[in-house]
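Researcher: Structure for this, please.
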Amino acid sequence: KDNDGVALGQGGEYFLALLYIKNLGPMTSKANVSDQWYDALQRWHLELFLIPTCLLTLATLLANPVLLACILLSHSLRQETRYLLLANTLAADVLFVSLNLVSVVCNALEVAVLRVLCELVTAGTVAAYCCAVLTVTLKVVDTYVAVRWPLRYHDLLPPARTRKILAAVWLLAAMYPLSLVIVMEAMEGATPDKSNVCLVLISVGNMGGEMTVGLHMYLTVGAFVCTALILFCYFRLYWVTKTQGIWQNRYSRARVTLLAHGVLLLLYFGPGLVFTVELVLYQHRTVSQDVRVWINTVNMCVMVLLPRACAPYLYGLWYRDISQTLLAMLRRHRSRRKNFLFLVSSRV
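Model: Predicted structure, token format:
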């Protein structure tokens, strides 16, 4: 009996050791991957990609808040569904580029980030990206509804209903990333508190097999639904309006608007498809680490920022109401400044 008790005790200790190694193994691998990733960044001097990252982020942060203020401060613009959707896209882009800049700067300068903070930044980045993509898709649906049912448009999409839809979009975009943060926090209880590299790819690439499959399904279903909606709406728009003669002129406003929308949609969806390829390459260890680092760096430092930097100039200022409101605000500000300077000079 004593021998059985000793054997049972050894068996229990062996089981606990296996369980500990099973939980700790992926996390230790994650720490090793972070160190190897940073070595590759330094070896190829990829910290130089911080320059285009800062320039594109600056272009976004200079234009988006101005357009947001123009929309939110104007009562007439706040009553339009398309401008509310545009404002939501601009807000999501500001959040995305800010979190992305923090991540890129910390990785380039080897700033150790707390694990919980890194996971929250990852979740915020994914949620902001998904929210922007969903809102851009809703803008296409909004255009289709406005053209297809012009007399019922304001009844179908009033501002109050649009705000509820936008709240649901933010909830849908943030629900899955936040749930992943909770799961990863439960799994990584024994890991170091800080990490040298904070990347979305490393955070989600080292999850378990079932979680990785769930992430692929989440991205695939979302991309399929958004793409199907966009293609359907554009096809129906062309079919409804082709007899009205607006497509005959090569440089008509409708054709140019469609071209601008198509370019921005491609720029918004492209980085997500590249990220899906990155996940596949990350799971195949036969692919060179340098190749994965280069693809991820170009995607995170250039490709994801291009649509955010172009949107306020190619899309926001294309609306006449926004451009006129912005010019009126600038004229009022200039007149107030002149009046203030005149009062100061008269008192002196």
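Researcher: Any notable elements?
Model: The chain is about 85% helix and 0% strand. The radius of gyration is 25 Å.
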